[in-house]
Amino acid sequence: MEDLRESDRPIRVRWSVALLGVAVVLISGHAQTIFYDGLGVGAIRPIAILLIALGIVSGLLGLIVVAPLLRHPERTDSPRPIVLSALCGLGVVAAAALMTLPFAALVILVVVAATQLRFVARGAPVPSPASRLRLALPYSIAVLVILPVGVLHVLAGNPAGTWMIIVWAVIGGAAAVAFPVLCRREIPALAGPPRRTVCAGLLLVAIVGYGHWLTGLGLAGATTPGGTIVAIVAQLATVLALVIGAPAWKRATVGT
């Protein structure tokens, strides 16, 4: 019988959380997208359904990854694996409900960004400031591309929300310009290994994308695809940040 190595337990837990997080983002993120009935519906609805299906698969994988810890709780000093897994399950359900709310989704992402980055690629070599700057630039460019798409979407569908879209664009633009500068400086959460910079960039894209929800025009009832495109980009950025931020999966995760 193969036994789990003690060192593999935290890796399995973190991967399980990451995969369940992916499920939460994709499933809750498209609970409204599937009802989109505007321009490009023939392409957007199938994409939404596909991403929901991928979210379900990711959730199942998250349960499979953590299952060995639940099968052998007697090998620990207490029933902590079961208790922690139950709490994690409740947390996933709560997060799934909250992620359907624009403000709550943004708060969750900010908390993830503030807490996860310090743990990404701990101990890995740190590249030079110039290398970190170059690595950060694509994410700033991505944000600068998202902003006009989001602005045009809101102005076309809800001109009354003009002041909110201006605030969103100004804050997003400032963040896009500041990000590579901050990555170049010695800020622990950003000035770290390449994987940490990539996660920070993806979370920046995700936060700006989810912030678009606060500009006065949600996906429900929208007739132009701009908001939906921004939302999908934000969700995929979140998914990549969760996966890339997870610890390296060792080749032999079970020992004999």
UniProtKB/TrEMBL annotation:
Transmembrane spans: 47-70, 82-98, 104-121, 133-156, 162-183, 195-214, 226-249
The entry's keywords: Membrane, Transmembrane, Transmembrane helix
Signal peptide boundaries: none
Name of the protein in its database record: Uncharacterized protein
